[in-house]
Structure formats: C-alpha cells, structure tokens
Design brief:
The structure is a single chain. It contains three helices and six strands, in the order αββββαββα. It has 111 residues and is α+β, with helices and mostly antiparallel strands. It has a six-stranded antiparallel β-sheet.
C-alpha cells in the first residue's frame, strides 16, 4: 500500500521552508528530519506521524483522530502520535501538526 502523495506534497510545502530539513523514505512512506531527528512523516496507511514532547502525549491522544504510534501488540513509541487522514483534511490542522513536529525535532540535539 502506497502513502498519500497529495498529503506528502502538502507536508513538504509546509516543512521545507525551515532550515536543515531532509526528506527520507521510511516506514513505507516519507519522513522529514530536522537536525537528523524525525519531525513528521506520511505513513503508508495515509496517517501523519508527528514527533511531540513526551509529556504532551496524553493531551494529544485526547484529540480527535489521534492515536498512539507503534506496532500492534508492542509498546507504543513515546514522543510520537499518529493523526488519521480526517485529522489533517483542513490546511490549518495540518499546519499545526507540522509545526508541532518541526518544533520538537528542532529542539533536540542534532544527530
């Protein structure tokens, strides 16, 4: 299953204005890195993966169309959430999630 190329183009337009952004194929989709740290990605199931502050996970998970990032039956990855396509249909919502992921990745030490 391929990732949503239109969603990827929308994310690319929002994130590539920032310095130091690198796009990479990952998780069956595309990911955008800042300073070597993943900020956001478009998954093969058309969900947006977003890096967040770990202490903000519970608040993010209470938002509509947001759930944990991880493989079924395994412990979820802390500091990441998945946003379903319905949660990023609106341009303002997508921009907010891209900003959250970019800010978190940029705040981390470069790899």
């Amino acid at each position: 299953m391929a990732y949503d190329e239109q969603l990827a183009a929308r994310v690319r337009e929002l994130i590539e204005a920032r310095p130091g952004v690198v796009e990479r194929k990952m998780f069956g989709g595309l990911g955008w890195m800042i300073g070597g740290n993943m900020a956001v990605g478009v998954m093969r199931n058309d969900e947006l993966v977003v890096r967040i502050e770990p202490e903000e996970s519970e608040a993010a998970l209470r938002e509509p169309h947001v759930h944990r990032f991880g493989r079924p039956g395994r412990k979820a990855m802390t500091g990441f959430v998945l946003v379903e396509p319905e949660g990023v249909e609106d341009d303002a919502a997508l921009e907010r999630w891209v900003d959250v992921g970019a800010a978190r990745a940029a705040s981390m030490p470069p790899k």
